[in-house]
Amino acid sequence: MPELAEAEFFRKRWHQAALRSPTILRVHTNDAKKLFRTAPAAAIRASLTQSVYSTSAASAKQILFRFLSPATTNAPAIDAWLGVHLGMTGELSVLEPTHTPRKHDHLILYTAAHALVFSDPRMFGRIQFHLGHTAPKWWTQIAPALLSAAFDAKIVAAFLRRRARSPIKAVLLMQERFPGIGNWMADEILWRAAIHPAQPAGTLRPTEVKKLWRECRAVARLALNTIAGRGDELPSDLNIAIPDNWLFNHRWEKGGDCPKTKKPLARAEIGGRTTCWSPARQKIHA
DNA sequence: AGACATGTTGCTCA
DNA sequence: ATGAGCAACATGTC
């Protein structure tokens, strides 16, 4: 499920529970080696047991939780960094402290008040782990956020020039330049910008590039505010607050209509992913 | 039964 | 070397 705003939603959900009951009493992991491919589960259990939650952040589709791992006879206290990528079907939930691990619960942090559960049926996600005084490299190397000053119109234009022959839809999915954009956000952005998803990236007019850049930021901001909530507020469920005038609420409906033009939506595979657009407002040009 | 799913990665070929 | 396209991953749901 997760794109940038969903990642922030799940981060906040664990964060709010972990703030209230920050000591990790026990850690459960299952034997899904695929999810722990870069971080041995045994090391995670050893370092996080008796650790204390401190802070967290979400960036693009990644989430980073920071804990203070206690001193041992051999080693002083040190920061433990737990990274989560939710893949296609991952989620983070907060359940009762008596929760029994289910089939697809891959990592559970038990505190006095909660079970912090990471589950992922399809296992396209990833758990990462790092001990040290600074954040791990995979985190600091994430491309500049859509809402940062570094993500400017010029850098977008230059990127589109390099990917000139690819459909713009495929280009928007490239995390190296558009961190956190996934299938539905890409379609939402193109729909708002009135750009056809199959339009080759190198053929966008300068005004279209500018519009695209602006809508990347607008959709990121709106998605974060509605899906993950503003400030301390956290919606009770994912996606419940998404307004009906977004493409999002119509893209999966059979026979769905464009909220702007009221005309039928189209669907096809573009850039390797099912793509939804409004033919009445998104047209290919030379 | 078969199609399809809010993601990445590693491989081919040009 | 760089870019483009696609199969593969694993499981659930319609």
Structure write-up:
- This protein is of the alpha+beta class and 286 residues long.
- It has two domains: 137 residues, Alpha-Beta Barrel (N-terminal domain of MutM-like DNA repair proteins), CATH 3.20.190.10; 125 residues, Helicase, Ruva Protein, domain 3.
- It is 27% helix and 21% strand.
- It contains seven helices and ten strands.
- The chain has a four-stranded antiparallel sheet, covered by helices on one side.
- Strand 2 and strand 3 form a beta hairpin.
- Helix 6 crosses helix 7.
- The longest helix has 23 residues.
- The radius of gyration is 21 Å and the shape is elongated.
- The structure holds a DNA duplex (14 and 14 nucleotides).
Quick rundown:
This protein has 286 residues and is α+β, with helices and mostly antiparallel strands. The protein has seven helices and ten strands.
Give the topology:
Layout: H1 4-20, E1 26-29, H2 41-48, E2 52-59, E3 62-69, E4 78-85, E5 91-95, E6 105-110, E7 115-119, E8 126-131, H3 137-140, H4 153-162, H5 168-172, H6 183-193, H7 206-228, E9 266-270, E10 273-277
Antiparallel strand pairs: 1-6, 2-3, 3-4, 4-8, 5-7, 6-7, 9-10
The protein binds a DNA duplex (14 and 14 nucleotides) through residues 1-3, 6, 34, 61, 85-89, 104, 121-126, 162-166, 170, 173, 175, 182-185, 239, 248, 271-274.
